[in-house]
Amino acid sequence: MHYFSEPLRRLTAALLSVSMLSTAIPVISGSAAEPQAVTESLTAEADAPLEVSYTRSAKLASAIASIKAGACNLYGSASKDAADVSFRVGTALNKSTTYYAFTNSGVYTSGKQCYIYSQGVYGRLHDELPLHGPDPAAPYRYSTQVCGYAPTLSAALLRRCRVMPGAYLRTTANTDGSYSGSSGHSMIILGYDENYVQLLEANADGYGMIREATITYDEFNRVYTSGNHNGTRFIGQIIQPLESRYLSEYGITYNDFAAGVTETTPTTTTTTTTTTTTTTTTTTTTTTTTTTTTTTTTTTTAATTTTTETEAATSAAETAETAAAAKAAADWEIPEIRIERENVGYLLWMPETEIVEWQVSDENVVTVKPGGSFWGVSNGETTVLGLGADGALYGYHVTVDMLPWAEVGDGDGDGEIDAVDANLSLQEFARRIVLEEDYEADPTLLRSCDVNQDGSVDAVDAMMILNFYARYSVLEISDDPMTVWFGVFTDLSNDN
User: Fold this and answer.
1) pLDDT digits 0-9 by tens, 456-470
2) How far is the C-alpha of 154 from the C-alpha of 57, rounded, in Å?
3) For residue range 98-116, what is the model confidence (pLDDT) as tens digits?
4) In a 3-state reduction of DSSP, which class is residue 128?
5) C-beta separation of 187 from 172 below 8 A
6) 145: which strand partners?
7) Is the pTM of this model over 0.90?
8) Closest alpha carbon to 404 in 465, 343, 460, 337
């Protein structure tokens, strides 16, 4: 796994050779702690249902719901051993772990991070793996590439390519659109309209987070294409099933999605039709006056009966919804959220339902952006409530204790972030390996040197500290520690 660009990698390796302990230390990945920090807020709120959306097909919506719950055809081995994480939306996969993505018929591939997560989702939805794009030696059975190189993403591009929900999108550093290894990001398109695109992805935050995000095209391009690596990232591939496959598997084509047609069965009108037929028969056997009277009476009676039945049904539905909301709220365990970085959003454990409104007790401590990312304002504690679409209230207890970016990685507290701090991190890592069950983390080093906030100080943190030192003190890329650290995290998040 490569965390840095080649020049920085060579410089970091040289620095590491000076600062590392004489004993080689294996890298052991810890499971990511939750909530996970993100360096960008990617989620916005669309005002209305998206024009092209997976929700317009009942079967597709059901499949996506199961994937969000973790059933995304990913395993820990080629023998389908259980993985070390649940793959549920809102949780994180382990960035250094190799996972195995299967199709429903048993074909598999292996990989890491966003790439393998998207392969698994696509395999679950479409019984095929997009891999690195079309290969003449192993052609797709059900899929095709509908879009190649494009400088940015837009609604016009998606419409022109007739992109459908469940499509696989990969960005690239290659101007011919081909797969470019770690220099790109993989995701699944769930829907889109003129203003927003809805994505299902892993590791966009650099910490392995699996999430669903609805964002503007400007936001997408700022993060993934024109705003990424000085504009050297592009749309590389959009791959999706053939329309005939979509029709056979999910009963819908692009034209149906774009036209807003749903699979919902139309409301029955049997009663109305019967009444009309009866009135017509009466008309042929009575005077016009009698017909008018009969029609009025019949229609009024039918309307009264229908209204009463509707009110009763509505009342029963509201009672059921109230009971369901009460149960959901009762089952909800209030998470303890800690925000430890400035200008960073924390994505949360979310309830099964959509949160339609947020309320913060003290906005001087934390703010909440659309989509549920929490941002620290000043150190302190507060409570955040989310009103679910099911009518239940979901609470979060939030503690903000932010470490200034100038102190992140400064293990010895001397005001400098350098090879000495990296060496301290490696020593802490070695101590954890030697002591095993008797190990207790040094709280000072854990706070300052757990750079990626995975709950432990290890060799990855040491490498990131050296990367920062190379950028900040040697190359002098910027005099703003936060800017330099974000550059380090960008390198990490693009190792997909």
Assistant:
1) 899 989 999 999 999
2) 23
3) 999 999 999 999 999 999 9
4) coil
5) no
6) 239
7) no
8) 343
